[in-house]
Amino acid sequence: MARKPRLAAGRARALGLPTRGTTNPNRLRRVDRWTTGTLSGFLLDAADPLVVDLGYGATPITTVEMASRLRAVRADVRVLGLEIDQDRVDAGKAVSDPPWLDFRRGGFELAGARPVLLRAFNVLRQYTEEQSFEAWDTMLSRMAPGGLVVEGTCDEIGRRCTWVTLSSDGPRTFTLALKPSAIEVPSDVAERLPKALIHKNVPGERVHALLAELDACWATAAPFAPFGPRARWVESARLLVERGWPVLDDRKRWRLGEITLDWAAVAP
Questions:
Q1: I want to staple 30 with a disulfide (CB 3.0 to 4.6 A). Which of 64, 177, 188, 240 is the partner?
Q2: What is the pLDDT of residues 70-94, one digit of tens each?
Q3: 16 pLDDT band (50/70/90 cuts)?
Q4: How many CB atoms within 10 Å of residue 251?
Q5: 70, 40 in Cβ contact below 8 A?
Q6: How far from 179 is each of 56, 101, 137, 159, CA to CA, in Å?
Q7: 207 alpha carbon, distance to own chain's centre
């Protein structure tokens, strides 16, 4: 029987279970690049630019990278890394620079923080679907008014990523971001779908239809292959729009290997 999230022992009363802790430098570069691009206006408008990186893993490198990248958008951004495992918190403290970059023991309850933006990557894979939705609700209830949660999954070196962006009203968008030269077909990203979608990749579900359509667009875009995988990906995205899918971004983002759609396009 799957375990439900629990309050871990200790003064922090951190809600959740420890992750595997796997991390690598630049593993989350694609979501960081999307955040500093697509959400730059959101960050600049924030009254209190506190950002939380939840479940950063065995080393704090991706949190450090996130802070550096966000600072290029807004110099006064504050980033707080949260982990349940105290050894991981201690590793973060060794490179902290309060108040701009700090680390604390905490889980889905966010250790009392009220961030405007929360990144939770590769955190929910160990939970059931029901538990992942509960985690969404818990995190959103702790956000600052108008705050956003970016929750997703990626492979070990960050070449295949997907994520959901949520507000207090629920899921807003779904993004997939990958290195076009590292795939045979776009649906190769399926094994990195967020927990809310990974078990829905079956006939009759919207996310399955999306990946099948994107594969078909990729096949149709084969004549662009001589110009490189990126050109083929851009043409695939253009075809997806032409076929009526609610794509929210444009060629500038497509060239980075991204496609963002309205959540309704993939909602179970």
A1: 177
A2: 999 999 999 999 999 999 999 999 9
A3: confident
A4: 9
A5: no
A6: 22, 29, 31, 5
A7: 17
Q: Which residues contact 66 (CB under 8 A, 6 or more apart)?
A: 28, 32, 51, 53, 79, 119
Mean pLDDT score across all residues of the chain: 93
Residue linked to tokens 């662009």? 224
- What's at 156, amino acid-wise? E
Q: Which of 198-227 are b and which e, b meaning 16 or more Cβ less than 10 Å from the residue's Cβ? A: bebbeeebbbbebbebbbbbbeebeebeee
Q: Tell me if the pTM is above 0.70.
A: yes
Task: Evaluate whether 43 touches 107 at the Cβ level (below 8 Å).
Answer: no
pLDDT of residue 2: 38
Residue of 228, 230, 229, 151 lying closest to 196 (CA atoms): 151
Alpha-carbon span 255 to 253, nearest angstrom: 5
Q: Nearest Cα to 174, choosing from 184, 185, 189, 159?
A: 189
List, for residues 138-184, the tens digit of each pLDDT value: 999 999 999 999 999 999 999 999 999 999 999 999 999 999 999 99
Q: What φ, ψ does residue 29 adopt, rounded to 5°?
A: -60, -35
Contact 150, 165 (CB under 8 A): yes
From first CA to last CA, the distance across the chain in angstroms is 24
pLDDT at 7 over 90: no
Size (the chain), residues: 268
What is the pLDDT confidence band of residue 19, given thresholds at 50, 70 and 90?
confident
